[in-house]
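Minimal example, chain plus nicotinamide-adenine-dinucleotide.
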Amino acid sequence: PIKIKNICCIGAGYVGGPTMAVIANQCPDIKVTIVDLNAQRIADWNDADLTRLPVFEPGLAEIIAATRNRNLFFSTDIEQAIAEADAIFISVNTPTKTYGSGKGMAADLKFIELCARQIAKVAKTDKIVVEKSTLPVRTAEALKDILEHTGNGCKFTILSNPEFLAEGTAVQDLLFPDRVLIGGEESLAGKNAIQALVDVYSKWVPEAKILTTNIWSSELSKLSANAFLAQRVSSINALSELCEETGADVQEVAKAIGMDSRIGSKFLKASVGFGGSCFKKDILNLVYIAKSLGLNEVADYWEQVIIFNNYQMKRFSEKIIKTLYNTVSGKKIAFLGWAFKKDTNDTRESAAIYVADYLLSEQATITVYDPKVSEKQIQYDLNYLESRPAVANIRGVSLGLDPYEACKEAHAIAVLTEWDEFVDYDWQRIYDNMMKPAFVFDGRGILDVKALSEIGFVCSVLGKSTMV
Ligand code: NAD
Ligand code: UDX
């Protein structure tokens, strides 16, 4: 039997940071070192001021405070951390390829391969190598190939242990996971490695929730779970348009269908479109895998989830323009929210970016208020699309210091993220300082539209039929 006493995690991002912090917190006898090529990120994780950690997650700062420099370390010395570890988690980014074959669809595995080569170069003792990143099915094969052909005789056992945490609830998801999935080889070495990792998680996760499978099932389950979740959002969003046209209310429909225990009530919130770093990337990856195996119908089926999501973001943007008398040119639109969901500072693939891009092309001026997102990030997100020169983005979009300033003299407010605080603003004060008619487009269905219309707002809620 193997006992894991020293863990190295490569990649100090949204997954590596919280995941390893929780392992260190729950397993005081294990030394955990998180390493990254990005020195600034490591410096931020080591910042004495816990409000400046690179990842904002409720409850995370407290765990970092309890574990950092006790048995949790953040470092740029990747080689030393690899050399010391019995288990190495690879938690680096696996973005969609932006070049060459599979461009725009396949996962870019160059960071993963770099990790494997570095491990092979440095390792002097046997290692368990854990795939924590989300990877195409059969990546373990490639990893093993690299490790075994460039290594110096050490034995590497590869496990797949995908992460199912959602941002905004990462700490809770890690402490009380629905399941922990560990895939490994059938061999004795494989079984021993699986058991060693089960022993780590079973310090706080009930054994019944720790699922062990073969390595390919584990890899494919991660892509499948994200595809299913995204499909639910696209399904309810497709119904939202039907609701708007027929007088049905999407929240009532969601409740009615969700009470069927076979369907379940979660993940049925209509929205302006799903965002986040995972859903689109992982479905594109699934589509690519299906296509490369010649499974075109399978590929088309899953691709539709993304096609519909793009449509939903465009539809929301067009609704704003149409309602504002078919032009937003020169008009100020206030955005409440830029993050892809509440309780996170992450903006990757946020619907807000695409809606802003659409409205900017129609010459609107946008002021954003988000409790956790900086102006620099907003400009970065817009420039990444390459729709217009950076100066035009700076001219078109600015950050309001507070929600009241952001909404001042706006023709319309668009709610893009479901932050709780938006509901409790002094909406009378906001109304008094807006252009009239004062329009509100609630892309998340969170506002009290009855109260707002009594103030005088003209409200449009996604998935509800009429202007209230
Ligand atoms: P991230 O971009 O936040 O972090 C990845 C980090 O890896 C970066 O800091 C980068 O500098 C570092 N890195 C890249 N190559 C490196 C190398 N060779 N050596 C050292 N460091 C290196 O990404 P993330 O959101 O944490 O996602 C990581 C993986 O986890 C992805 O495969 C993703 O699909 C998966 N995942 C993400 C989530 C999520 O909610 N974000 C949830 C589940 C799974
Ligand atoms: C997702 C998966 O949930 C998680 O298991 C996986 O590990 C990583 O990808 P994440 O992207 O962090 O997590 O957040 P999630 O809560 O899934 O939300 C994704 C997007 O869908 C957000 O933009 C969210 O606002 C949207 N969404 C979610 C809806 O529009 N409606 C819903 O009912 C649920």
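The longest strand covers residues 6-10. The CA atoms of residues 97 and 108 lie 5 Å apart.
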